[in-house]
Each structure stands twice: as C-alpha cells, then as structure tokens.
Amino acid sequence: MRYRNRKYSTILLYGCFWVAATAFADVTATIDPAVKHQTILGWGATASKGQISEYQLQRIVDAAVNELGLTRLRLEPPRREWEDPFNDDADANHIEWGAFKTGQTDRIIANVIAPFKRLVEANGDPFNLYVSPSFFDGGSSGSAMPWMLKEPEEYAEWATAYLLYLKNKHNITADYYCVCNEAGNNNAYSPQVVARMIKALGPRLRAAGLPTKIEFPEGVNAATSWRYIQQIQNDPDIWKYIGLVTYHLYGDAS
Predict the structure, then answer these.
(1) 252 domain-assigned
(2) Range(s) of the domain holding residue 187
(3) Which of 51, 56, 104, 246 satisfies CB 3.0 to 4.6 Å to 78 for a cystine?
(4) Is the separation of the CB atoms in 65 and 113 below 8 Å?
C-alpha cells in the first residue's frame, strides 16, 4: 500500500478527531494479514438527543454509523430523573419502580440508541453499549446523593435497576457499566469508594442474569486511571467483575 503521508495536528473534540494536514511525504506500508495486534472494540460517542429536530437527529445517526463507522455508544443515566434526589425506599434489596422517572431515557433509546444499533448490526458489525453516570460536584450532572455514597448496596440497587430497565423495557443490554465517569475529577469517588461499589454491584449483575461487565476506572487521563488501578490491583474480589480498563485523553498526563 502506498499513500501520501502528512504531518498532522490533531484536536479531540467530543470524541471525534479532527486532523489538519501540514506537510507531505511518500510512505510505503505493507500489511501482513497473518499478524494480529490490538483488537479494536469499536469507535464510539456519547448518546444524546440534543436540541435538534428528529429529522436532523436521524441524519446524524446515519452518518455516524455509515460514514464515520461508529459502532459503540455511551449512555449517561439522567441523574435528575433516576431515583433522585431521594432513595426509592430503605431496602437496598427491593426496587420501588415508582420512584424512577424514565422519560429522558426512553427518548434517547428510541431516537438514538435503537436506530444506531439497527444500523450497526445491519452492516454486520457488533453493537456495543456502556452506561456511565457522572457525579460532578457543582456540575450539570449534580453531585452523588449522600445515601448513595454512604451505602454501596444502595448504589448497586440504583445501577442494577437502570440496567434492568434498559433490558426489560427496550431489549437493550449494556455490555459494560462504569461506576463513575471520570472518578476523582471533582467528585467523591475515590479509589476506595469505587472499589466498595464494584464489590456490591458485581454480584448483583450476576444474580440478575445480566452479562454486563464493569468498565474501570475511566479516569480523566491515563495517570489518574493508573493511580486507581494501583490502589486496588491486589483485590481479586474486584477484578473478577472488571471487563475493560479505560481512561480518557485529557491533558498531558495521557
């Protein structure tokens, strides 16, 4: 394979790489199909409806799959709807479904995730979904509720209820679940807090018959994720539930 190579300046904007070419050089690349390297799980983005028309939204979904080749989505539970701000009841082993509002999730599934999934699978590719809530202190997501931080089993009930709703209502099963998007970045989710919640959530996922694995630690950069990994690396009761080790690409620390 022969192609024109360029020096590139790259900007990461909401999960998309924008590349500007600045110089040319001749490069020859030889592909050996017998040699396998890292397997790419998928290219993805965050599922969000936004303030646009349904026609525009469907055009974007189609372009994302059929032009950009995206196959993976991140779904962020609508914190201000899902059992917020009050706990559903005092029993972490009982889900009071009436305490959960579902309107925003239903709209995102119907208008973004379901059509995205259909297009990906129609192309013969595997669709991948991960659920990743945010708990930024002072941010638009809102802080973690005190009852959630105090009792890991209550957090596990909250997370399991959301995953079960996706499966039972919309026939959507999340492949992965992240306890906290960007843990340690302006939120109360220290390595110890995340570890306790993984230990509570992992058994519940299995008991509920969900194949969902934990995606961890999803730090704001590689250095943060590595710090979280180091602090729990010797705890086998955590790692048996983890399916992906992940980090974001913000700042020089990555």
Answers:
(1) no
(2) 34-247
(3) 104
(4) no
d(CA 70, CA 80) in angstroms, rounded, equals 28
Structural domain count of the chain: 1
Residue 151 lies inside a defined structural domain of this protein: yes
Q: Using an 8 Å Cβ cutoff, are 142 and 135 in contact? A: yes
The pLDDT assigned to 108 comes to 94
What gap in Å lies between CA 183 and CA 194, rounded to an integer?
8
pLDDT score for 10? 32
Kindly report the CATH number assigned to the domain that includes residue 64.
3.20.20.80
Q: Own/partner pairs for 136-140, CB < 8 Å, 24+ apart?
A: 136/182, 136/185, 136/186, 136/187, 137/186, 137/187, 137/188, 138/186, 139/186
Asked if residue 232 is part of any domain, the answer here is: yes
Provide Rg for the chain, Cα atoms.
20
